[in-house]
Design a protein that fits this description.
Helix content is about 50%, strand content about 15%. It has about 230 residues and is an alpha+beta fold. The protein has 8 helices and 8 strands, in the order αββββααααββααββα. β1 and β2 (about 45) form a beta hairpin.
């Protein structure tokens, strides 16, 4: 067995939960679309009784409706699995480097060099070369995906279910607005697309898929350090 087998199994778990999440998000998207009535008249779009000024072209606006607790729970499970992968990696590498069991290790994710220095005790047992490799994965070194994992995992773990938003990108085609100009209700499917995102604007499914890839590639980069 390789020391990172447990970490790779957590990756498998994250992928399985992500597959479960996709139909939940699709159902949520349809629920939002079905709840919105859309009219276009004299430069204004009437959305569920509210008029917004939207020029011909593309515009975006938020629709505030929480996703189901089940969807948010699954998102949290995916994120926590990925966070565990990184913690497993630090633990296994620290034990390997030091040839002893190391307790209280953790994958550090911080925004400033001083905070990284202050948390070196969480990397106890690692050789300087491996500490430097983990430092390159810090947000202050330009690694954005670790910051996203931290920002999504901490609220889910300590306070509440992961929050998501659902902005609607509305596209009005100037060659096909006769129905809208008449003031009649039209299909949302014809004129709008709904994207479910995290609070920072990252699309939920695409963002999680990319995080799985980023974490998997990080495991691959450390795989042959165990020799």
């Amino acid at each position: 067995m390789h020391p990172l087998d447990g970490a790779y199994e957590q990756i498998n778990g994250a992928r399985e939960r992500l597959d479960t999440l996709k139909p939940e998000i699709n159902a949520f998207t349809k629920e939002i679309a079905n709840s919105i009535s859309l009219q276009y008249k004299r430069g204004f779009v009437k959305i569920s009784g509210r008029y917004l000024l939207v020029p011909i072209g593309t515009a975006g606006f938020p629709v505030n409706r929480p996703a189901s607790p089940r969807a948010r729970r699954i998102i949290g499970e995916v994120i926590q699995s990925l966070r565990k992968v990184l913690d497993y990696l630090v633990y296994e590498l620290a034990c390997f480097d030091s040839k002893s069991i190391k307790e209280k290790t953790q994958f550090v994710i911080v925004d400033f060099p001083k905070k990284f220095s202050d948390n070196l005790w969480r990397l106890d047992g690692l050789i300087p070369e491996h500490i430097a490799m983990f430092e390159r994965l810090q947000p202050y070194k330009g690694c954005h995906w670790t910051k996203l994992i931290r920002d999504l995992s901490n609220p889910d773990k300590h306070k509440t279910l992961t929050a998501i938003k659902h902005p609607i990108a509305l596209s009005l085609d100037p060659s096909n607005t006769e129905a809208m100009l008449s003031g009649k209700n039209v299909s949302m499917d014809s004129y709008a697309s709904i994207k479910i995102t995290f609070s920072n604007g990252t699309p939920v499914i695409e963002g999680l898929e990319q995080l799985v890839l980023d974490v998997t590639q990080t495991l691959h980069s450390f795989y042959f350090e165990f020799k």
